C-alpha cells in the first residue's frame, strides 16, 4: 500500500513519526509533500515545491495542493494524512475528499489547533480549563468530524475531542518511539538541572531561571544547563544575569547531540504552558533522566509523580518547581529509583511494535 502525507516538521521529528511506518511490510511507499527534502528514510519519497515558492506562502501552498492532487490520483494511497490541522490537515482533507481516499490528521499540537492558527501565548494553556470554541473552532470541528482518522498524542487531547463531539472510534493515541541514540550511558552527571528545547515564549523558560534562583538558596553549587536556541535567547540570558546566575546557569545554544546532554544531567525540566507531546520528555526517559514537568497536556500520560518524575499543576508555579528540584537533588536514592522507572516506562509502553500495531489499526 502507499501513503500520502503532508507536513512541516523538523527532520528529527519527521523521522520519529515516520520510522515505525517504514517497518510495516504492507507499506510500500510513503509519499511526503514538504517544503524541503528531508532525511533519507527507507520507503520515503519527497515532493517539494520550488524553493522560491516556499517564500511566498500562498503560491507554495497552492503548489503543494497540486502535488498532493497529482500524487493521490497517480498512486492511489490508502490514506491521505496531514500533520497539524492548519494548513496540512485541511489540505489532506480536501485532497482526500476530491480523490475519494481515506483522510486523516495528526494533531501534534493538541487542542490548541481548534482555537486559532499559530502559537498564542497564555491564551490556551493546557494547565488551565480551555474556553468554548469560537466560530473558527466550530468550523475546524466540522472538518474534524468528517475526517476518517484523527491521531493524537495522549488522553488529554482525546478527552478534549470527545468532549466537543468527535466520534471516539476514529481517535487513535499514538506514542512515537525515539531513535537509538537516546539510551542511558555512563557519562558523569555534571549537570543538576537541564532544560532542553526551543527558547520560545510558550516554553516559559523564565520559570527555569526563577526556580534556579530559589533552589540556589538551598543548594548554592547547583549547576543548570539550558540547551537550545530561539527568539527568547537574549531575554533569558538578561534575566539570568539580572538575578546574578551567570555562574549557575549556562546557555549552551543548540546542540546536535542532545542525548549526551541529557545523560550528563540528573533532572530534566519542562515548564511549557502547553505541549503536543514534547520530544525532550521521551528522550529523557529513554536516557533514564526523570522529568519535572508542568501539567501541559498529554505528557501526563507518561510522567507519574512518585514514579518517574513530578508533575506540577501550572507552568508559572516557581516555588513548586524549586521545591521539587531541591527534594530530588537532596534524595539521590529516590532520584535513582525514578531513573530506573523512567527507562521502564519507555521500554514497556513506548515501543516500536506498539506503534506499528496502532498504525495497522489506522491503515487496516
Automatic annotation (TrEMBL):
List the coiled-coil residues. Answer: none
Any Pfam family from its record, for instance, is Glycos_transf_1
Provide the taxonomic classification: Archaea, Methanobacteriati, Methanobacteriota, Stenosarchaea group, Methanomicrobia
| Transmembrane feature ranges | 56-73, 80-96
Gene3D superfamilies under this entry? Glycogen Phosphorylase B (3.40.50.2000)
- Assigned keywords, A-Z: Membrane, Transmembrane, Transmembrane helix
Limits of the Glycosyl transferase family domain: 188-344
Question: Which superkingdom?
Answer: Archaea
PANTHER family (alphabetical): GLYCOSYLTRANSFERASE (PTHR12526)
Record's protein name: Glycosyltransferase
